[in-house]
Structure of ParA family protein:
Amino acid sequence: MPKRRHKKTVTVVNRKGGVGKSFIADEIAWALERDGVACAFWDFDGQGGTGHETSDAEEREAAEVYVVDTPGAITRQMRDLLKQTDVAVVPVTPVGSDVSATEYTMDVVESACPKAAKIVVVNAWTRFRTARAFEECADAWRSRGWEVRYVPHAEAVRRARDAGRSVCDVAGAARPQGPSRSFASASRGW
């Protein structure tokens, strides 16, 4: 990704794979697009799990915001990318095995981009499945200055992923309150 002077960058990152980075990056980009914000998408994940393709040079030049989907690894290149980040979004699923990788990622983000807005997105949330211990983790993340958002585990999420579209596009009446509105508005909080 080239050095930028005026573009805002939202980077979706976690060293752990399978936590929904591509899904969250897509939802942020779709929400920005629906709101008329020109955005460019960067897919560094390489697994083909997004509904967006990496933007061409013309789209990148016209963009107000870059949305970046990263692989499940923290490399030197990812650390360099984080130095250019305005909003860091760290997805996690509500299972104990994701916590250590997520906290490692949070440490890297705090070191690489201390002035960036920082958001943890708990993906596939269901209050019945979540243990009290996980809620204690979320409380600890808030005390570190991270905003914590929740994306519900819902049939609309599965349908959206299958269709390669936004949750807001397939959720019908829930459209205005869809989860992508939540993290897109948080991402614009720069």
Notes: The first helix runs from residue 21 to 34. Residues 122 and 190 are 21 Å apart (CA to CA).
